Amino acid sequence: MLRPQREQLERERDRYEAGTSMSTPLTAGLAGALYQDLVVNRGVASPKPSLVKALMINGAVDVTPGGGCDYTYDTSQSSIPLGWGRVNARNAMYGPGGSPSQRNIDFENEVTGNAVATGETYTRQVTANAGAPFRVTLVWTDYPAAPNSLSPLVVNDLDLEVVEISTGSIYRGNVFSGNWSTTGGSADRYNVVENVYIQSPVAGVYTIRVKGFQVSQDQEPDKSGANQDFSLVSSGSFGVVNNPPAASIENPPEGANVAGLVFIRINATDTEDATGTLTVQWNLDGGPWLPAAWNGVRYEAFWNSLEATEGNHVINARATDSGGSTGADSNNVFVDNINTPPTAAYTYSCSGPTCNFDGSGSSDPDSAITSYAWNFGDGSAASGVTTSHTFAADGAYTVTLTVTDDQGATDGEAKSITVTLPSANPVMHVGDLDRSSAPQGVNQWRATVTIAVHDGGEALLASATVTGIWSTGGLGYCTTSASGTCSINSWNLSNFTSSTRFTVFNMSRSGYAYQSSANHDPDGDSSPPGASITVTKP
After folding, report:
1. Confidence of residue 18 (pLDDT cuts 50, 70, 90)
2. Which of 65, 280, 484, 497 has its CA at 20 to 30 Å from residue 98's CA atom?
3. How many CB atoms are closer than 10 A to CB 340?
4. How far is it, in rounded angstroms, from Cα 32 to Cα 43?
5. Which helix (H) or strand (E) holds 90?
6. Eight-class DSSP state of 359
7. Which residues contact 288 (CB under 8 A, 6 or more apart)?
8. Is 432 in the same domain as 415?
9. Does residue 340 lie in a domain region?
10. Claim to verify: residue 65 and residue 173 sit in the same structural domain
């Protein structure tokens, strides 16, 4: 029941009366005015009674302020409550604080399209501002109960839920704490009016859900099956929501080591305010807020980390728009103004007189290496992470890499490098002789010698033909592959022959001369080294 209540006069010449004799015509008159407003001003061709009822309930003023809501009926109550409050024509038409030009009210008339069956859900989204309560009212015309039924339950039962998108909070219809809705609780199983009254809404989007909990009788003949239609009203501050700006610290990044003068870069944007017009500030460890200036691309500031203690700190940033909304970000940094010197390290490879050098193995634990300086030991120098150099003469050279970090600390690594230039007349020789043996057939065995051919710079040489002679008779020859090696076999040696000896006789390759005096054997199993080797029966 909706009752007017006497209150302090708000305007001169107003008159107040109490009792049902006055509340009934006043409420009926408002219902008629709402019906006319919906048809004439809101474009609703056929407003349903449930919509008019929902508008009056949604705009009603609590008759027991401070005493808590006493709106709904259930079997545990010993008396019938007073209802949803005193009707308020302005609230019902325009919403709280609204006007003909700014209606803070949204509604859904009872139509076929919103009817729900058991298990179905109708959803509607509304954007509300903070600063005014957000109220949602669901009303439906239930199917008549059976004659003489004493059950307090409704026939077709719908459930109202309002979801606060930004927090995920869910408010259920008719679950109150004092005068306002609270999260949790159970769905209402006794009433055909359900309300959610959020006292201090968070600005943003809300999803309103109407669920068909149990719809056993059809109240919407234009839709197949058993369906229940309804009217839905929501009110609040429905102006443009001031979305907060987005702020992010671009530099220094999260977890960075910093030293000296630090350049702070902050990206801050807003969907309503023009680019570059936000108020952006930063601080260290929650200290005083300091300004960051717009540079045409982002906001920036400088921080002298020498004024902070060594160790962990937090850089905070915030951006505030013209509506007072704020976005924030923070990054953890480590202040390290006690510089650790870099470590120089390099690798190299040489081909003849030309060597390639790579200093990318150098490192610095707390700074950046800013220069790489090379000294080749022959009066020449170079710079850069990698470089190459061609030496003019044979010999050993001390090559030094010196690295410098951004704090001016240095370190060096020196290595001795031996360079051999190719001769004008290229030579070749035996670089290794290896032997092996294996049984062959009945009472026979096989001897094998593998020859490695080197050039004058001791590099393996392909396409060299080696000729040799076996002490047990016969010549043999082979040509080195890309690996610089080849093998010569002596077959069908009698088991009465305990060993045989192979001697290199000659070596040939176009453009090269055989230099037998340079023959050698690193594993010492030939004598003279690299010239002759004995293979023993297996």
Report:
1. low
2. 65
3. 13
4. 16
5. helix 89-94
6. -
7. none
8. no
9. no
10. yes
Please give the single-letter amino acid code of residue 523: D
The predicted-structure confidence for 257-302, as pLDDT tens digits, reads as follows 998 899 999 999 987 788 999 999 999 999 999 999 999 999 999 9
Residue 394's CB: how many other CB atoms inside 10 A? Answer: 12
Residue type, 70: D
Output DSSP code: residue 61.
Answer: B
Name the residue range of residue 314's domain. 246-335
Q: Residue 239's pLDDT is what?
A: 60
Is 80 within the bounds of a domain? yes
Q: What is the mean pLDDT of residues 296-317?
A: 94
Which CATH number is 43's domain given?
Answer: 2.60.120.380
pLDDT digits (tens, 9 = 90+) for 91-114: 999 888 888 888 888 888 887 778
Q: Which CATH number fits the domain that encloses residue 269?
A: 2.60.40.10
R_g over Cα of the chain: 48
Give the span between the Cα atoms of 464 and 509, in whole angstroms: 5
Judge if the upstream peptide bond of residue 528 is cis by omega within 30 degrees of 0: yes
Say which range, 61-65, 405-409, 516-520, has the weakest mean pLDDT: 61-65
- Output the six-digit token pair for 441: 């057939």
Q: Which of 274, 300, 335 is the last residue of a domain?
A: 335
As a 3-state breakdown, the chain gives helix, strand, coil percent values, each rounded to 5, of 10, 45, 45
Q: For residues 145 and 213, state if they share a domain.
A: yes
Mean residue pLDDT across the chain: 87
How many whole angstroms separate alpha carbon 164 and alpha carbon 172? 12
Return the structure tokens found at 261.
Answer: 């003068």
pLDDT, tens digit, for every residue of 182-209? 999 999 988 999 999 999 998 888 999 9
pLDDT at 444: 95
**291, β-bridge pairs:** 281
Cβ count within 10 A of residue 170: 16
* Residue of 86, 90, 84, 85 lying closest to 33 (CA atoms): 90
Contacts 24+ apart (CB under 8 A), 190-193: 190/72, 190/73, 190/74, 190/75, 190/152, 190/153, 190/154, 191/72, 191/73, 191/154, 192/139, 192/140, 192/141, 192/142, 192/154, 193/53, 193/54, 193/57, 193/72, 193/84, 193/137, 193/138, 193/139
What total number of domains does the chain contain? 4
Domain match, 179 and 253 both: no
Q: Say what the alpha-carbon torsion angle 41, 47, 49, 52 is, to the nearest 10 degrees.
A: -20
